[in-house]
Design brief:
5 strands; 7 helices; Nucleoside Triphosphate Pyrophosphohydrolase; alpha+beta; about 10% strand
Length: about 210
């Protein structure tokens, strides 16, 4: 099964200390995240969780070290970068401490709230999931964690959907729906700009039995 990186919101993701270690989210994204009654602190926490899970599972860190750079480029610090990720995965290092020690700030301003799915009520296990878009940082290559994720790849939405239709690329319904939406855009910039200007409906599938 193929899915986007992601996971569970943790208490530490909503810690007030993150305000000093993050670029402030876009006002539009914060407003849209809060439209269902989500408190602003939790909305920021959801974005922090998205950045953390992406780093843990795929080795991509959406952060900056100085105002001039678009994203942090590990460069010569790649070995240290990998060591910190391993400590985070092993529970030996807190994500906030990792960001602070590396002198970074999370690029929450680069995240765009894209979709909101809730597991059907008949499901024995329920999830309330937000999806975000962000441009990929130059200088960082995805690296699956070999635990929660067993492989990773970059691929165009249309190509994935064609493979899925041929039975070669299994997808969950939310993943398929998000890929259909992404396939309508010409490029990353258009996806980010239009999505930031669009409202995000909450999708709760229902089944008649």
């Amino acid at each position: 099964m193929h899915v986007f990186p992601g996971g569970e919101l943790e208490d530490g993701d909503c810690d007030p200390g993150w305000r000093r270690l993050c670029h402030e989210p876009s006002p539009d994204d914060l407003r849209r995240l809060c439209e269902d009654g989500t408190p602003p602190a939790r909305a920021r926490g959801l974005m922090v969780a998205g950045v953390r899970e992406l780093f843990e599972e795929a080795g991509i860190l959406l952060a900056t070290r100085n105002p001039e750079e678009t994203f942090f480029d590990p460069g010569k610090e790649d070995t240290l970068f990998r060591e910190y990720r391993a400590k985070l995965r092993g529970g030996k290092l807190d994500f906030q401490d990792l960001v602070r020690d590396l002198g970074l700030r999370l690029a929450l301003d680069r995240l765009v709230f894209f979709a909101h799915w809730i597991t059907p009520e008949i499901s024995p296990i329920r999830y309330d999931t937000r999806f975000f878009l962000a441009p990929a940082p130059a200088g960082q290559e995805p690296d699956h964690d070999r635990a929660e994720t067993t492989s990773c790849l970059w691929v165009r939405p249309g190509e994935v959907l064609q493979l899925c239709a041929e039975g070669k690329f299994p997808l969950l319904p939310p993943t398929m729906a998000n890929l259909h939406a992404l396939s309508e855009f010409r490029d990353v910039r258009e996806a980010l700009v239009i999505s930031r200007e669009s409202e995000v409906p909450t999708i709760l599938p229902r089944f008649d039995i």
